[in-house]
Automatic annotation (TrEMBL):
Keywords: Pyridoxal phosphate, Transferase
Gene Ontology MF, one: pyridoxal phosphate binding
Protein name: O-acetylhomoserine aminocarboxypropyltransferase
Entry's family note: Belongs to the trans-sulfuration enzymes family.
Cofactor(s) annotated in UniProt: pyridoxal 5'-phosphate
Keyword Lipoprotein: no
SUPFAM superfamilies xrefs: PLP-dependent transferases
Pfam families: Cys_Met_Meta_PP (PF01053)
EC number(s) per entry: 2.5.1.49
Chain positions with N6-(pyridoxal phosphate)lysine modification: 209
InterPro entries per record: Cys/Met-Metab_PyrdxlP-dep_enz (IPR000277), OAc-hSer/O-AcSer_sulfhydrylase (IPR006235), PyrdxlP-dep_Trfase (IPR015424), PyrdxlP-dep_Trfase_major (IPR015421), PyrdxlP-dep_Trfase_small (IPR015422)
Gene Ontology cellular-component annotations: cytoplasm
Amino acid sequence: MTDRPQGFDTLAIHAGTAPDPATGARQVPIYQTTAYVFKDADHAARLFNLEEVGYIYSRLTNPTVAALANRVAALEGGAGAIACSSGHAAQIMALFPLMGPGKNIVASSRLYGGTITQFSQTIKRFGWSAKFVDTDDLKAVEAAIDDNTRALFCETIANPGGYISDIPALARIADLKGIPLIVDNTTATPWLARPIEMGATLVVHSATKYLTGNGTVTGGIVVDSGKFNWSASDKFPSLSQPEPAYHGLVFHPTLGSMAYTFHSIAIGLRDLGMTMNPQGAHYTLMGIETLGLRMERHVKNAQIVAEWLEQDPRVEAVTYAGLKSSPWHRRAEALLPKGAGALFTFALKGGYDACVKLIDNVKLFSHVANLGDTRSLIIHSASTTHRQLSPEQQVAAGAPPNVVRLSIGIEDVADIIADLDQAMAKATA
Ligand SMILES: *Cc1c(COP(=O)(O)O)cnc(C)c1O
């Protein structure tokens, strides 16, 4: 390897991996093993003391899973990463080192529906809470952060509407308040946006979506920038003070830029057990090899479909930030110059009933609760992914009852449009 920094598509294929040292296998083998034989008692002790990096038990680390974590860390420009059993697991894992009973996060009101439910309901069982704000109102964001706030959370391209978050502005507020900005980069992927370069501390992914890219894996990733000074205040004692759950180890600054990553493995994965499995990691690694090629086609198709929908008299509105009519168009151009993603909603004239008819009449599109597949996908968010939300939350999240969400695939765009055209004809007849 040379010192020259490698490009995105090279890293997508090579980062985190090398030919298998035991066999020379070129593709990353699926290390389907639970445990690893220690060289001797001293070696085992050194591993458990984090004095030497190596494999102990696959709930903590596994070579296939580590290859995936290291590859995504490289693509996001982070210091380290942790692969998890799902995107939702990754969100809990991301918060775990930061939070404690009585602590809160400030989160965008425009999030994946499941995340709003996880943050507004389920995390309360841990004594954590979330305050939701419109993150375009920077004054409201600042006002919502109090002495017990431990993170600010947003999505790069917010599901389902395709709204673009002002990551640099939110990062400045987080910096000012001495807390990390966590960005869910699932719908953008590092090919479209690298939140760490815009000032984010942590990036989370549902690897289930574009990273794997073909609807075969449920997985998640947490990437740490390695840049946050956890010892600057007494807000993050689990990282900056002797950690009783790891025989008094002070993770930061002892482990430097890897403090958060090691904490997440040594305590988070050890005790919460939200580990990714090696087979899932292998599929995701293969998916990532073509991430750049796929995203290029996803955004190209999405732009064409959104423009076609916008000029169609049967359509009331299209939310795609790649359209000049979008209030987020300029921000998309500034922050995501390669494209505004492939996820957006549109409102059909005829409201709820027309939306349901549309969904029942598509043929190429699949009606599923997923996104980021090679296949074009469609769903009515208000009655599915955002169903647990109140009507007010649905509107705030961009999922009112009269819109459908599209995840534009990489098929021939003429076929995607033809399918929508015939279904819209039936829905508005
Ligand atoms: C799907 C999704 C999640 C949750 O990920 P899972 O892998 O389904 O647990 C979180 N955030 C966003 C933006 C998502 O699209």
